[in-house]
Design brief:
With about 100 residues, the chain is α+β, with helices and mostly antiparallel strands. The chain has a two-stranded antiparallel sheet. The chain is elongated.
Length: about 100
């Protein structure tokens, strides 16, 4: 990012939707399915926001792969104000001026 002058990147909505669909399809046959009850791993009602239904090896491969086309890239100066600043909260860490 520094080499090419980008300040931030974010997953595109299309890539996120594709991932979520595959994730929830794979979770349907596991104990982490909303059909099988609820648990700490459910964020929004009926949405598992925590579990990875595939193998650890698949997770490692996924974390080591990078597809720049599934991100939106932001140049410096185009960033919105930090969320805390938008909400009127202090932006410095607690305990620091």
């Amino acid at each position: 990012m520094r080499t090419h002058g980008y300040a931030a990147l974010d997953v595109t909505p299309e890539a996120e939707e594709t991932h979520q669909q595959a994730l929830h399809k794979a979770l349907r046959t596991t104990v982490y399915s909303p059909v099988n009850g609820g648990g700490y791993y459910f964020g929004l009602p009926g949405v598992n926001t925590f579990c990875w239904p595939w193998s650890t090896a698949r997770l490692v491969r996924r974390l080591h792969a990078f597809s720049p086309d599934v991100y939106t890239w932001t140049q410096p100066g185009a960033l919105p104000a930090p969320r805390a600043a938008q909400d009127g909260l202090p932006t410095a860490p607690l305990g620091r001026p």
